[in-house]
């Protein structure tokens, strides 16, 4: 919808993807504009700053070829919007919400601001419902709860893309399979990664319940800032208008933050830590806080942002700020990956602060929390003994110590290293008991006697014994 035909012709200068226009103080922050060059070619853009002197516009395409004397700017829409529809499920879009699957454009039921609607804190319901990802380490030890935001911290070269695809394929809210949907947004992808995600979603049938937004590395940096907002707007619409339980997977937030830094540099802003903008915390919070459950609304939005930590540094500003805003983290481990364990999730530095809300009797199983605690303690003990053995050798170990050492190996091989299997929570707890049953009952100090009497001695089915896989 064209709100105003007025043109702004006083383009002062161009800096990278930014256009500085004089005498345009009546443009609104966040407005969408068209930039026309001398040949009549149109480029899209968004207003990111307005002062009495000028307006700053992010150009969605290259600024090459734009001439200060002939370029003009005209308003298209008062704020960036996305046409949304339930028919978006099963479709693929680029980072700006344009179809890339060869099918016609979506007939929009509504056009919503991509900045979302503020969620009244008093209207938020407590997240209390377990989401089953089919991955034992997450489901048992770092449980994902409906309405939570739980990031995955990975590193360069680690298989977080494969992990993201597996979660997208397997995740479900038990009892709500029919109204569960996945919104998947990827930023800064190489062509190989675009092909991987496209083929993986189509091959496994996950596309039938998913909406994909794929932003490529050679797309403008500005587009990377809009991609997660497009995805979250779609998720909120499906959740709060159509009652879907939506899992939003955002990868890779590091590429998003790099784009934020690039735009900040072009705007000549004073940099903060490591050159990133000082407002990066606020910007990330504007994404992460768009998760939750709302009283009186049947749907929910759950987020799993994925970021690759530069140099595996968890104190880097991106994971550091993310950790402050979100409710825990899932850590992908380089050592486990080098052993061929997939998915290489290390449960020791991983944490889900809302786990206790959504597990236990009547939700998953009565022994779930105790099993999680016992696995954590036993694995930590086994890793400590590995370090001791490296110094003294196994001869210095007691028989119980040797059992813990064996437990650590079995835990990595059979429990963590499940490959691409889709395990129910019951399956995962069965594997856990099968491994714990190799320890003496006297060592299971975090599990109640009733649970030990009921489950101790559980045998792992042959299918679990062959579950270790590399990717």
From TrEMBL:
Task: Give the UniProt keywords, A-Z.
Answer: ATP synthesis, Hydrogen ion transport, Ion transport, Transport
Domain named ATP synthase A/B type C-terminal is located at 358-456
Keyword ATP-binding, does the record have it?
Answer: no
Q: Which residues form the ATPase F1/V1/A1 complex alpha/beta subunit N-terminal domain?
A: 14-68
The UniProt record lists the keyword Transport: yes
Task: Give a Pfam family name.
Answer: ATP-synt_VA_C
Domain ATPase F1/V1/A1 complex alpha/beta subunit nucleotide-binding, residue spans: 134-352
Function according to Swiss-Prot or TrEMBL: Produces ATP from ADP in the presence of a proton gradient across the membrane. The V-type beta chain is a regulatory subunit.
- What protein family is recorded? Belongs to the ATPase alpha/beta chains family.
- What NCBIfam families does the entry give? PRK04196.1
Which named protein is this? V-type ATP synthase beta chain
